[in-house]
Amino acid sequence: MKYIIVTGGVMSGLGKGITIASIGRNLKNRGYKVTAIKIDPYINIDAGTMSPFQHGEVFVLKDGGEVDLDLGNYERFLDTELTGDHNLTTGKIYQAVINKERRGDYLGKTVQIIPHITNEIKNRIRKVSARSGADICLVEIGGTVGDIESMPFLEAVRQMHGEEAPENIVFIHVTLVVEDLQGEQKTKPSQHSVKDLRMLGLRPDVIVTRSHTPLKEEAKEKISLFCDVPPELVISAHDAPDIYEVPLELEKQGLTTRLMKRLQLESVVEDTDWKQMVQKMKSMKTGVNLAIVGKYTNLEDSYLSIFEAVKHGAIECGCKANIKMVEAEVLENDPAELEKLKQYDGILIPGGFGERGTEGKMLAIRCARENNIPFLGICMGMQLAVIEFARNVANLEGANSTEFDENNPYPVIDILPEQAGVDDLGGTMRLGDYEAVLKEGSVAEKIYGSNYIVERHRHRYEVNPEFVEKLESFGMVFSGKNKNRMEIAEIPDKRYFFSSQFHPEFRSRPGRPSPPFRALVAAMCEYKKTKEEK
Ligand code: GLN
Q1: For residues 405-433, b (16+ Cβ closer than 10 Å) or e, as one string?
Q2: Is this model's pTM higher than 0.70 or not?
Q3: Domains plus CATH for the chain?
Q4: N or C end of the chain, less CB within 10 A?
Q5: Ligand 1 pocket mutation pick from 461, 486, 499, 500 by most atoms within 8 angstroms of CB
């Protein structure tokens, strides 16, 4: 196994994940199987209970792991599927060590950070990478060098450096190059962060600098000299117009070849799919406008995978999709804002929890349905589409979800008996991959090109099977099912009215868009054309 260990300096939020995913993609393009492990030094066991306000979206993996959004970037860039084990947190490590201690596994010894915690970290890195059958494993240590929380992880990889053959482990440090008031690039913070690394016994082989503009020769030489890294291994990861262009920029600077040399890898393969995808993306011209009506609208990261999936669909359709975030609650109070929604070429309601904003989202759904505007509803978005349809089409006045109103007259959305019984937060959540069988001749079957699909889930509530017949008699079709669970609700006689209990965005990939998203963008383009012809 070849390990590429990546640390971060100066501050977090540098786009370290994208840089690492890009390095991985370039190695994959050379024919290697690449996997990734993300270390989050926080105490939480996983990201499942974390607020998207603080951390961006919770990404859901096939095994139901609820993880940091960086793993989503890894899946998209590396075109792979990861599991919950690929996300290590301090909480997971300590929990495992404490459980072993209680079981007596340490035979009465004093249990300590070194060696017990560090051994647990090293074992997990080695086990997870071996199990995934990869040639190369990227290990991202979240946070910034110098944080108290990340010390045990840095110590663990320091030990690995001594234990692995030199050609099997390489260290990359991603740091920030700031500009002073005159616009000059300053390298001092980077120098300091490398000094901090050195004090921990780590020495970077490569330094990748994040900056707004390309790293100037002078700054590069300074970093090289002060940080003891040859200038050709100081790589500029300056802002790119789109994150998918980052691999191409790193490739241009020869990073892949140099890493391969250092790791004694000699592939001659060169896959150009990614490059072609980027070229297609850059040539997109006309644009369609999509409104995403949600709750965390001031933080785009809380809908990251949805943004990406829309982009994948748009690249495929050769048509740029401009996204506008609309705060659901504003629609409840301002009829003028609701009226404005009609101008969009498409409306999307993402997943969400809690009642706030749900009435506004239903106003948006009604607007889409009544004006025949292409619509995609995801998870909570499907539940609200069903409630809106029940109330305004199927004459079930006061219909609701028991999540928002326990005693409503028509609980069209409810907790199924097998989901009931709340142990702890997330305890009863239906998480990860589940299959669905699609109805013959449905929109769902047409867009997926199959009658059997697997998609990722994260929810507790479901369409109440008791109301299915009634709703179907009014024209809503539950075209995807997993036994008595409704996975898809569509209105076939609309231009495109599609909603799913699962989250299709998590399996969408550049070059292989998720079918509901591709179909949404295609319908938006068609719709825009018909409007223009009028
Ligand atoms: N709150 C809803 C449920 O638990 C929807 C969840 C979601 O949209 N992810 O079923």
Answers
A1: eeebebbbbbbeeebeeeeeebeebbbbb
A2: yes
A3: 2-38+115-276 (3.40.50.300), 284-533 (3.40.50.880)
A4: C
A5: 461
